[in-house]
Amino acid sequence: MSDNGLSRRQYLSTVGGTAVTVSLAGCFGGGGGDGGATEITAGTAPGFPPFEMKQDGELVGFDIDLLEAVVDETDYTLAGWEEFEFKSLIPALTNENIDVVAAGMTINDERDETIDFTDPYYSSNQAIVVREDGDFSPESMSDLSGRPIGAQKGTTGESTVQSELIEPGNLDESNYNSYGNYVLAVEDLQNGNIDAVVIDEPVAQTFAAQRPVTIAFTYETGENFGFGVREGDDEFTQALNDGLSTVRDGNTYQDLTNKWFGQQ
Ligand code: ARG
Predict the structure, then answer these.
(1) Predicted TM-score (pTM) above 0.70
(2) Candidate from 84, 106, 163 with most ligand 1 atoms within 8 A of CB, to mutate
(3) What is the per-residue pLDDT across 211-248, written as a single tens digit (0 to 9) for each?
(4) Which atom of ligand 1 is nearest to 155's Cα?
(5) Which of 101, 108, 116, 118 is nearest to 48 (CA)?
(6) Most exposed: 44, 90, 97, 255, by fewest CB within 10 Å?
(7) Radius of gyration (Cα) for the chain, nearest Å?
């Protein structure tokens, strides 16, 4: 693919966490190079491999490559990336600190009330991850009853714990541990502080490949990930959707899935 990292990393090191906001309204660059193209800033929440993570201090992952490839197909220019905790991404978007969210974010009705989404670009279920060498091998949600479990704050993994375990009375609220990111949750699982983590399946597979943890079972949620955009940024959303379908129609999408998820 044509992405060579453009000014993203350079941008991050010079601008750091400063919010850069550019109005999108009615100022298309009109193609032909980046001169005059509208600059947009993307936001993500690393610690969610292989979608977004830090590698030797650099932000990398499927979402990073995919959004860059998609934006490359549009008249917009990606000025850079900003990192947040997952639960702060929607506020950052609505506050105009960022213009697009690429964070394995599930499209759902609750979020759709505040923001818009592009077309879906990946699907997932939830997975229940446990220690590989442990003696705890749950097979269903009810087996998690009374066990300390964890998920990332503000995620659909957390909602799954709420709706499938806490609300039906199978798990005491005090047994649920909420983490700023999934790496911390999985570390706590490895350390024995919790007995299971509820997390998106492709990310569970990545952790299972890299750490002494394993998927005990999956819980079907039929989630779809989309890029988050501000309500009303319709031209921008349309441009991203067009870019996404171009990237899907060519080899880029397949190349990126092979790169980040292995041959499939
Ligand atoms: N798909 C889940 C959700 O939308 C989890 C996303 C977590 N993403 C991240 N970059 N940490 O709630």
Answers:
(1) yes
(2) 106
(3) 999 999 999 999 999 999 999 999 999 999 999 999 99
(4) 12
(5) 101
(6) 255
(7) 19
The predicted structure's pLDDT at residue 134: 82
Tell me whether domains 8-121+226-261 and 124-223 share a fold.
yes
- Cα(176) to centroid(ligand 1), Å: 18
- Residue 35's pLDDT is 56
Strand 196-200 versus strand 38-44 pairing type: unpaired
What is residue 186's predicted lDDT score, i.e. its pLDDT? 98
Residue 79: helix, strand or coil by DSSP?
A: strand
Atom of ligand 1 nearest to the CA of 47: 11
Quick check: 237 and 228 in contact, CB under 8 A? no
Query: Would you give the distance in Å from CA 204 to the centre of its chain?
Result: 13
Kindly give the parts of the chain with pLDDT less than 70. Answer: 1-35, 263-264
Looking at CATH, the fold of the domain delimited by 124-223 is given as: D-Maltodextrin-Binding Protein; domain 2 (3.40.190)
Judged by DSSP in three states, 178 sits in strand
Rounded Cα–Cα distance for residues 63 and 35 (Å): 25
- Return d(Cα 2, Cα 189) in angstroms, integer: 39
Alpha carbon of 167 to ligand 1 centroid (Å): 21
